[in-house]
Amino acid sequence: MGKVDGKNWRPQEGARLGEWTLVGRGYLGKGGNGEVWEARRESGDGRYAIKMFGLGKSLKDRRRRFADEIRFLHGYTGEGVVPLVDSHVPEDTQEICWYVMPLAVPLDEALGDTPAEETMLEAVAAYAETLAVLAEQGVHHRDIKPSNLFQRDGRWEIGDFGLVTFPGKGDVTSPAVKLGPVNFHAPEMLEPGDDVDGGPADVWSLAKTMWVLLRRTRWPLPGEYRSGGEYSLQGHIALPWAGELDRLMQRCTVLHPAGRPTMAEFAKEVRACLAEPPESRETASIAEMQDRLAVLTAASHEAAQQAQERRNFLDRLALELDVLFTDLYGVVDGMLQNKFRYYESQPEPSEATRLLPMLMPPWAHQRGAQFTSPDQDGKAAVKFSFVVRLVNKLDDEAEIAFDLRVVHRHHSLEDYPFKLQRTWNAPVGSVQFARVLDEIRAVASNAVPDMLPVILRIVALADDHVPDWYAKARAGDI
Q1: pLDDT, average across residues 368-383
Q2: Cα distance between residue 222 and residue 211, in whole Å
Q3: Residue 379 assigned as binding residue
Q4: Are 189 and 142 in contact, with CB atoms under 8 Å apart?
Q5: CA quadruple 425, 426, 431, 433: dihedral sign
Q6: C-alpha span between 443 and 140 (Å, rounded)
Q7: 406 near 456, Cβ under 8 Å?
Q8: What's the start-to-end Cα distance of the chain, in Å?
Q9: In angstroms, what CA-CA distances link 250 with 125, 141, 260?
Q10: How confident is the model over 297-316, as a mean pLDDT?
């Protein structure tokens, strides 16, 4: 395999590297960047694994990558990574370089034959959280697969950082070499060299690892993940979040790396699947509190109901008054044979009741209309309006005012040759109030014989006629 202190050396039982001795039948595995054996220290404490690389110049890139792995482990002091215990990186490329780590249990062995789905998700969440911390530091593993994942002393840890990339690391991969685990790697890792962003690639590989674990199979499906088919998680796992995990798998395996979630987002979503549901109180205690709430809010609830009933009553009253307006409109428009132009207008002030000066009464409803002759100057007009106002919000006593007048208009001044104003007081919703509304209708109808001659006289005036009242007003007599 290589040399130690200038002498040929091969891994075998009892062979020594520094203070470490290889244990008989202790061969653990082999990878592109080295061979792993179990080893013990002279002091005999604990169980350890030693990873060795000793081939010569023909594989110098792999040796440099092995040295970079040691450099990363030597500088990393966080959790979630199988730690470095000892190492040796000689300058001579013929000499064996090695490092020692605590002996950890491979993921498959740690999970056992029939692991609970929650246990598998717990492992994936822990690995994702470690990779998220590394990603914040610009470190990416780039070789995530089940065989590089471990458990040690009850903690889930990541090992084999032979393809790690980190700030300050040089480009050691030949342009012809492809990186990553063949069955778990992201498609961009097929591109040769070290320029590929390892963050999204780690997300892809860990998502494929999660699928392999949950589906209890050895290899993942190639390419983008598609839910809903035979290989979906839904229908094959008992977790309540199978549908959400299917969607997470889809997001993590989109072909465009920028479309995948970050490792931190992946970890957060998997961890959410493991969160305990919110604690719920006993039904009895909830019922007691609901009863107490009903007692405390009874008065205000009753008041709110009464207020709503009041609003409904006033809405019905407004509709009743709109019917009155329609009836009055019919009286005046019928009198004018539908020949005058109609406009909605504001009610006229009523000095008798002083209704309008109260700007914000507890409740008020007012309507007004104006019918203007069709001539260019609109010299004749009929106006009607009414106002119904509640004086006090605590009772239903209403003030009602009705105004009906004929207008003679000349050069922007007005005269009222006919004017009728009436006022009433009556409780809304009472027979008295209904009689007032009927009386308003009667007053309007009875005024037609008096208004019509006045209107005819005004309309018959010549356009150049100057009324006496206008001349007096201009002279200052009015």
Answers
A1: 94
A2: 12
A3: no
A4: yes
A5: positive
A6: 93
A7: no
A8: 126
A9: 17, 21, 9
A10: 91
pLDDT per residue as tens digits for the range 92-134: 888 889 999 999 999 999 999 999 999 999 999 999 999 999 9
Distance CA 242, CA 270 (A): 11
How many angstroms separate the CA atoms of 146 and 151, rounded?
A: 11
pLDDT tops 60 at residue 57: no
Domain ranges (residues) in the chain: 1-103, 105-170+180-276, 320-352+359-475
Query: Which tokens go with 407?
Result: 């207008």
Q: Residue 157 and residue 180: Cα distance in Å, rounded?
A: 19
Please provide the average confidence, as pLDDT, over all residues in the chain: 87
397 to 7, 143, 263, 364, 394: CA distances (angstroms):
117, 86, 72, 12, 9
Give the span between the Cα atoms of 130 and 267, in whole angstroms. 9
Candidates 3.40.1400.10, 3.30.200.20, 3.10.20.590, 3.30.1360.20; CATH matching 1-103: 3.30.200.20
Determine which helix (DSSP H) or strand (DSSP E) holds 447, and give its type and residue range. helix 431-460
Encoding tokens for residue 58?
Answer: 């023909």
Query: For 27-40, how does the pLDDT look when each residue is reduced to its tens digit (9 = 90+)?
Result: 787 765 678 999 99
> Rounded to an integer, what distance in angstroms lies between the CA atom of residue 137 and that of residue 90?
28
Report which residue type is found at 108.
D
pTM of the model: 0.59
